[in-house]
Specification:
With 445 residues, this protein is of the alpha/beta class. The protein has a domain at 44-352: Alkaline Phosphatase, subunit A, CATH 3.40.720. The protein is 28% helix and 17% strand. The chain has helices spanning 10-13, 70-76, 92-101, 105-108, 124-130, 169-184, 208-211, 223-255, 288-291, 318-325, 340-344, 406-418, 433-441; strands at residues 46-51, 80-86, 134-139, 156-159, 191-197, 263-267, 273-274, 280-281, 295-298, 307-314, 354-360, 363-369, 373-378, 383-388. Strands 4-3-5-1-6-9-2-10 form an 8-stranded mixed sheet, with helices on both faces. Strand 7 (273-274) and strand 8 (280-281) form a beta hairpin. Helix 6 (169-184) runs parallel beside helix 8 (223-255). The radius of gyration is 21 Å and the shape is globular.
Length: 445
């Protein structure tokens, strides 16, 4: 497979030379005795495995030089890997809402920190349930929990974050255990599982066995650079922990004889910034570090495997693609497009810019992006910038005058932003003190 390449920031190059020895995978409850090969449904199982805050350029299958993701890399060899998936925003709720409903943010209206997911939307879960799938949502991030209207359209919904404060890797282990138990008990019923794990979300606190895995023996740089390098090393450690958790689910599917016929999507809701554009964490900008996420799709029967698809797609395309891959009708209200023509090389798929928006705190940005050009408008300052993302992948050279095709891209972004953003249909219930503490610790208040 010829994977998409990315240039790495100078600060990353300082940490590549000396990383710790491999550490063992964290002990978790042994679900082995439950996992026996049994009856397998005719219809494929569907798994959406979302790793929160995961930058694609920190995975081996997207050319990261550290061994953060051996299980994901092996999985990618049996799947189609997309070079440019654009999330709906640089934070969780808008992106996941688009992923599960196939709609853009002005339709689902889960845009701002206080917004509740609108009712009456198209639903991937409901479409699959109607076609005979059992559906389960297992989440560790409160931003997409029942507090904000998520999970209602699933037959089973687990808000596992409520048991943990702060929400950390322990919640991810329980989420994976829960998914494995459902796989073991599924019998001949096809399953749809949306599994949302929290690591490597800030604060970076991997299990002790992973903590020093990517930590350099010495640091070179200023105090602030050293602090960022330490954060990045811990971030990578949490990615490796997340990779091991993903491996557990894949192993469960294989041991029960359900893997080959499964449709599996691995992706993230947004990335993470390490001062590439003057900020830390996410929900700060619409630049590459916060917007470059993995998107890897394995079809039933491992069809069309080992593909590198260099095309700009967006989060609203996920649900239509899954339904189309299963031969099911795409609800009329879904605004995304099926990506099956790109995967199977059958049919047409006219190029279309991807769009995104960030309305969080005082941040007000929107953007449109093609395979070679990006336009970001800062509504607070009232100014827009274009980026040649072929020559300027890290978006360091903003252009104030439009390049070729720049005016058309700006018009597309402006038309997207012109859609009115109405209030959600349902108000979120008042938060308890504990809920506010958890949300505040994660940066959502």
């Amino acid at each position: 497979m010829h994977f998409p390449t990315r240039r790495f920031a100078p600060i990353l190059l300082l940490i590549l030379a000396a990383c710790g020895a491999p550490k063992p995978h964290v002990d978790t409850q042994d679900a082995g005795p439950l996992l026996r090969r049994g009856p397998v449904p005719d219809q494929p199982d569907v798994l959406i495995y979302l790793i929160d805050t995961l930058r694609k350029d920190h995975l081996g299958c997207y050319h990261y030089p550290l061994e953060t993701s051996p299980a994901i890399d092996a999985f990618a060899e049996q799947a189609s890997i997309f070079s440019d998936m654009i999330p709906m925003s640089s934070w969780t709720r808008p992106s996941v809402a688009s992923m599960l409903t196939g709609t853009l943010d002005y339709t689902h209206r889960a845009i701002r920190a206080e917004d509740h997911l609108r009712e009456g939307l198209p639903s991937l879960a409901r479409a699959l349930e109607a076609a005979g799938w059992d559906t389960a949502s297992i989440v560790t991030n409160p931003a997409v929990g029942s507090l904000f209207g998520f999970g209602k359209d699933f037959q089973y919904h687990a808000d596992l974050w409520q048991k943990y404060q702060p929400v950390g890797w322990e919640a991810d282990v329980e989420a994976v255990d829960t998914a494995i138990a459902r796989i073991a008990e599924a019998a001949d019923r096809p399953q749809f599982i949306y599994l949302h794990t929290m690591a490597p979300h800030r604060d970076y606190a991997p299990p002790e066995a992973y903590r020093d895995r990517f930590m350099p023996e010495r640091f070179v740089g200023t105090r602030s650079q050293v602090n960022i390098m330490k954060d990045m090393a811990l971030y990578d450690a949490e990615i490796r922990f997340s990779d091991d958790q993903f491996a557990r689910v894949i192993d469960a599917l294989k041991r029960t004889g359900r893997y080959d016929n499964a449709l599996i999507v691995l992706l993230s809701d947004h990335g993470e910034q390490f001062m590439e554009h003057g900020e830390l964490a996410h929900a700060a900008s619409l630049h590459f570090a916060e917007m470059g996420v993995p998107f890897i799709v394995k079809l039933p029967g491992n069809r069309r495997s080992d593909q590198d698809i260099r095309y700009t797609v967006q989060m609203a395309d996920v649900a239509p693609t899954i339904l189309d891959a299963l031969g099911l009708a795409i609800p009329a209200g879904m605004e995304g497009r099926s990506l099956m023509p790109l995967i199977t090389l059958e049919g047409s798929f006219p190029p279309q810019p991807a769009v995104s928006r960030l309305y969080f705190g005082e941040k007000r940005y929107y953007m449109a992006q093609t395979q070679w050009l990006k336009y970001i408008f800062d509504a607070t300052r009232g100014e827009g910038s274009w980026y040649d993302i072929i020559q300027d992948e890290r978006e360091r050279d903003p252009r104030r005058t439009p390049p070729e095709d720049g005016e058309a891209l700006k018009a597309h972004a402006d038309a997207f932003a012109a859609h009115p953003i109405a209030e959600g249909d349902a108000a979120a219930a008042p938060l308890t003190g504990k809920q506010r503490d958890v949300l505040d610790a994660l940066g959502y208040l």
